[in-house]
Amino acid sequence: MSKKGTVGKVLAGAAIGVGIGTLIAPKKGSETRKDIKNKAGEVVDKVKHSVKKEKTTEE
Asked: CB under 8 Å to 13, separation ≥6 — which residues?
């Protein structure tokens, strides 16, 4: 299995776990939506960082 595929699967698993944890947390809807938005932004940043890192490693 390639390293690139493994990183993607780990990030996807982490995102799913965070999403499920956020949805079942006992909070108000507005707080939950805010948390989801923040966590989604963090995941996007991590994916972008990983992609940049992979690109520089390949070169």
From this structure: none
User: Cβ(27)–Cβ(35) under 8 Å?
Assistant: yes
Question: What's the pTM value of the predicted model, to 2 decimals?
Answer: 0.51
DSSP state of 59: -
Q: How do residues 8-54 score in pLDDT, each as one tens digit? A: 788 788 888 887 887 787 888 888 888 888 888 888 888 888 878 77
Please name the residue that has the structure tokens 């940043």. Answer: 45
The answer to whether the CB of 39 falls within 8 A of the CB of 22 is yes
Is the torsion defined by CA of 9, 6, 14, 47 positive or negative? negative
Quick one: tokens of 31? 């707080």
